[in-house]
Design a protein that fits this description.
By secondary structure, the chain is α+β, with helices and mostly antiparallel strands. The chain contains 8 helices and 4 strands; from the N terminus they run E-H-E-H-E-E-H-H-H-H-H-H. Helix 1 packs across helix 6, helix 4 packs antiparallel against helix 5 and helix 5 crosses helix 7. It binds glutathione (GSH). Glutathione binds next to helix 3.
Length: 192
């Protein structure tokens, strides 16, 4: 299996951490999606033009969440329950908004301005992080399955890119610190 992605993407990293935890072998193809040659590879394989994607023989799977489902199905592992699916939706919504905001910043837009698009993203990010903080306090992220892995990758990416102040979410900070020492997260640290 080939996993196409970058070392910094939190969506790609989820799959790398998951494969490490489940001892699934794969080859990592590191793409810079803004480099002309690598972008041609991206476009050829994935019309959504987003990473990650997985190639297993002739089958190409787009989107980290579908790759997760594909791997669980292929290796006959238990799917997520509905509560975990909702946790994943929370994490994805916050992650997507932060990606959009980062792209706006890189497009030299003033993301601090009082406008509908930025206000909606900021509201979502703040609200979801506080719900996730509460869920961590309630011990609802207690194993290290895909929702916990996705949460860790989101938090570590926020810290790495300095996207928002996590110190106001003490349970999230503690969760982030605890999982930093795992071999599966250390091995694909985007800072290395
Ligand atoms: N829902 C997708 C989101 C993937 C995503 O947004 N990836 C970002 C990198 S972190 C990307 O490829 N962005 C390129 C773009 O937006 O043009 C997934 O879970 O795989």
């Amino acid at each position: 299996m080939l996993l196409f992605g970058s070392t910094s993407s939190p969506y790609v990293r989820r799959i790398r951490v998951l494969c490490h935890e489940l001892e699934i072998q794969y080859e990592f193809i590191n793409l810079n999606i803004f480099d002309e040659k690598d972008r041609a590879t991206l476009i050829e394989l994935n019309p959504t033009r987003k990473i990650p994607m997985l190639k297993d023989g002739e089958q190409v799977i787009f989107d980290s969440n579908i790759i997760h489902r594909y791997l669980k199905h292929t290796f006959e592992l238990a799917p997520l329950n509905w509560h975990q699916e909702n946790q994943l939706t929370l994490i994805n919504s916050c992650n997507d908004s932060l990606v959009e905001m980062l792209i706006c910043q890189r497009s030299d837009l003033d993301t601090k301005q009082d406008s509908l698009f930025f206000n909606l993203q900021n509201e979502r990010i703040t609200e979801v992080l506080s719900v996730l903080n509460q869920q961590v306090m309630n011990k609802e992220f207690n194993s290290f399955d895909y929702p916990e892995i996705s949460l860790y990758c989101l938090l570590d990416w926020i810290q790495f890119r300095e996207l928002t102040d996590l110190s106001v979410y003490p349970a999230l900070m503690q969760f982030w610190r605890i999982h930093q020492s795992r071999a599966s997260t250390q091995k694909n640290d985007p800072r290395l």
